[in-house]
Design brief:
The protein has 8 helices and 17 strands. By secondary structure, the protein is α/β, with parallel strands linked by helices. The strands form 4 sheets. Strands 5-2-1-6-7-9-10 form a 7-stranded mixed beta sheet. Strands 12, 13, 14, 15, 16 and 17 form a 6-stranded antiparallel beta sheet that branches. Strands 3-4 form a two-stranded antiparallel sheet. Helix 4 links the parallel strand 6 and strand 7. It is elongated and about 65 Å long. The termini are far apart.
Length: about 300
């Protein structure tokens, strides 16, 4: 069968790898975002999907706008039984969605209809979910609203961060996508409508999302810290100096301090009073420096008791 694959970040790589390995599949084209400048040196960088496609000598297409007439005409000239989309980065025009002979399938990093949108992995952790997963669905014009094909659940433990969950889901997702195609070909999958009554949205993240509000529970703040790691990261201010909190834990008891007050310091942690419970800072990062344990940080830096974090 002929497939057009659309994807950009690292999350999409295992799925493309699985498609390449499958001898029953011919990848006619890989579509990915244009090369972008990134990092302090503003060096032009290829997407992870492009790197893999080039290694396997697969034809590439990198339009700035996938939905202009030129792009649509180009795609429509490529034979495809399926278009497979994994974190491509642009909404697709209906002319593209109806192009493949069989269907356009999307792999999404949540158990739909929960956490539709741009950042499902992060928001599942931020909201304290105990499980999430991946879903394959038939694409339509709505945002992640298409009929569900297959799902796979994953447990989220209380200290797992978004980066760790991302790596688990990307590998499971690649396997699920192959199972989905094989199930469709064998006529063993019946698409199911999504339950709109339980749908939720996972909005895009930005750097401002990471500012910690200490007038919250210690558990919620801990979930936010791990849900925003490694990007955009969670941060606070100590006497006007911004620093990120990269690893934390919490205890439910209180110490009677003011909200945001440092109420304990030891070799392994800094304790901060929240609205309910104590947030335990175990690892942090100040601007321009590497992240480090609280123990290592305190070897060359002073942290004072009773300071209010903002």
């Amino acid at each position: 069968m002929n497939i057009i694959f659309m994807g950009t970040p690292e999350f999409a790589v295992p799925t493309l790898e699985k498609l390449i390995e499958n001898k029953n599949i011919d990848i006619s084209l890989v579509i990915t975002q244009p090369d972008r400048k990134s990092g302090r040196g503003r060096k032009t960088t290829k997407s992870p999907v492009k790197v893999l496609a080039e290694e396997n000598k697969i034809d590439l297409f990198q339009p700035e706008n996938i939905n202009n007439l030129k792009s649509i005409d180009f795609i429509k000239n490529i034979e495809a039984d399926y278009i497979i989309v994994v974190a491509y980065g642009q909404i697709l025009h209906k002319e593209i969605l109806k192009h493949p002979r069989k269907s356009c399938i999307n792999l999404h990093a949540s158990l739909l209809p929960k956490y539709r949108g741009a950042a499902p992995i992060n928001w599942a952790i931020i909201n304290g979910e105990k499980e999430t997963g991946v879903t394959t669905m038939i694409m339509e014009e709505g945002l992640d609203t298409g009929d569900i094909l297959k799902t796979k659940k994953v447990n989220i433990n209380s200290n797992m961060n978004a980066g760790e969950l991302h790596d688990i889901l990307k590998d499971i997702g690649g396997k699920l996508l192959i199972e989905t195609i094989e199930g469709i070909e064998a006529q063993k999958i019946s698409p199911k409508k999504q339950n709109e009554a339980i749908a939720s949205y996972a909005p895009m993240l930005n750097r401002k999302t990471g500012l910690i509000n200490w007038d919250n529970t210690a558990e919620n703040i801990h979930n936010k810290i791990r849900g925003l790691y490694p990007w955009p990261g969670s941060y606070t201010y100590y006497e006007g100096c911004k620093f990120k909190i990269t690893k934390s834990n919490y205890i439910s008891k209180n110490k009677g301090g003011k909200i945001g007050e440092i109420v304990g310091i030891s070799d392994s942690r800094i304790e901060v009073q929240t609205r309910n419970g104590i947030l335990l800072i175990n690892e942090l990062q100040i601007p321009g420096k590497r992240k480090m344990s609280v123990k290592d940080y305190l070897l060359g830096n002073d942290i004072k008791m009773n300071v209010i974090l903002k």
